[in-house]
Amino acid sequence: GNSVTQMEGPVTLSEEAFLTINCTYTATGYPSLFWYVQYPGEGLQLLLKATKADDKGSNKGFEATYRKETTSFHLEKGSVQVSDSAVYFCALGSGGSYIPTFGRGTSLIVHP
Amino acid sequence: NAGVTQTPKFQVLKTGQSMTLQCAQDMNHNSMYWYRQDPGMGLRLIYYSASEGTTDKGEVPNGYNVSRLNKREFSLRLESAAPSQTSVYFCASSEKTSLQETQYFGPGTRLLVL
Fold first, then answer.
1. Which long-range contacts (CB under 8 A, 24 or more apart) does B61-66 make?
2. β-bridge mates for residue A20, sequence order
3. Does B103 reach chain A within 8 Å, measured CB to CB?
4. Are A66 and A16 in contact (CB under 8 A)?
5. B68, B50, B69, B17: which is closest to A97 by C-alpha?
6. Each residue's pLDDT tens digit, B2-47
7. N or C: which end of chain B has fewer CB within 10 A?
8. Mean pLDDT of chain B
9. What confidence score (pLDDT) does residue A9 get?
């Protein structure tokens, strides 16, 4: 079946540090890949997505590249801000089940 | 454009009580979903409705029922609440169920069952 594995958190960084949150997946066919972000007290919202291999999704300074050979979709940002503190979820949509599969989430804490 | 709205925001129940969580979307989406979020577990799908008039079980449907009242509204009912149902519940919608669809989430309902 489909599955998503994210690195355990929390990830704690100082402002302006480089961020990587790892995500690997197992899926049938050719999945679409997503990163969602959940700010404190709110619902999830889409951060970025990629629908085919080698695609790069980007938004608000965050980037992730769909790597089929390593079945990965790691989230990166060059310089994090305090306002980026949130929980980040990797997710996939795959043929056979059109319902997304979510990872467990990675909490990011950015200190001034 | 309110997006996805959920009521109530918070609820405390005693074991055995019943309640209905309400969800509505104003984006004319065909598909709607109910998830629960527990610490360390991520999001787990309870039920979904691919289109008006259809509902299907997700990963953790036991103890819940749903109703797709119309295209806009999708409610989740707990007939006899149990402490294991203490969680944060999110409703979501998407234009349709497909590989590439983005889901839009409501703000959540925080439920405590004593």
1. B64/B34, B66/B34
2. A76
3. yes
4. no
5. B50
6. 899 999 999 999 999 999 999 999 999 999 999 999 987 888 999 9
7. N
8. 93
9. 85
Q: Which residues of B touch A89 (CB under 8 A)?
A: 42-43
Distance from CA of B44 to the nearest CA of A (A): 8
d(CA B108, CA B6): 6
pLDDT digits (tens, 9 = 90+) for B55-72: 999 989 999 999 998 999
Report the chain A residue with the minimal C-alpha distance to residue B110. A41
Q: Which of A38, A52, A41, A32 is nearest to A9 (CA)?
A: A38
Q: Which of A46, A94, A98, A101 to probe the B interface (max B CBs under 10 A)?
A: A98
Give yes or no for a contact between A31 and A90, defined as CB atoms under 8 angstroms apart: no
In eight-state DSSP terms, residue A96 is: T
Nearest CA in chain A to B57: A99
**pLDDT per residue as tens digits for the range A56-79:** 999 999 999 999 999 999 999 999
Mark residue B85 as left, alpha or beta (left: phi above 0; alpha: psi -120 to 50; beta: remaining): alpha
Q: Is B10 on the interface with A (CB under 8 A)?
A: no
